[in-house]
């Protein structure tokens, strides 16, 4: 089992979640589409050669984003990350994948 955490602008959160959930990620027992969301502010500065969704090269940008956390079975994690990257508006979305261990 894995924990998938990603950061997405509030305006695109539902579309990205739908894409990730469509892979089967976010299932806990008899429940699906399970996640936890935390609001925050992301910051980045596009470098020369970047094609940013927001902002412009060389200028610092701040965006209201959501941190979205969910669990994902081992055999689905690659598909979930691919769906996340495809649906996300950013050229380089920020995300983490952590293996979970049972006790």
From TrEMBL:
<protein>
    <submittedName>
        <fullName>NGG1p interacting factor NIF3</fullName>
    </submittedName>
</protein>
<dbReference type="InterPro" id="IPR015867">
    <property type="entry name" value="N-reg_PII/ATP_PRibTrfase_C"/>
</dbReference>
<dbReference type="InterPro" id="IPR036069">
    <property type="entry name" value="DUF34/NIF3_sf"/>
</dbReference>
């Amino acid at each position: 089992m894995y924990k998938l955490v990603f950061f997405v602008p509030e305006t695109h959160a539902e579309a990205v979640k739908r894409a990730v959930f469509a892979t089967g990620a976010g299932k806990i027992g008899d429940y699906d589409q399970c996640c936890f969301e935390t609001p925050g502010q992301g910051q980045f500065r596009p470098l020369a050669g970047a094609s940013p969704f927001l902002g412009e090269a060389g200028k610092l940008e701040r965006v209201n984003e959501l941190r979205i956390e969910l669990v994902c079975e081992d055999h689905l994690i690659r598909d979930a990350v691919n769906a996340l990257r495809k649906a996300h508006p950013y050229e380089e979305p920020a995300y983490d994948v952590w293996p979970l261990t049972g006790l």
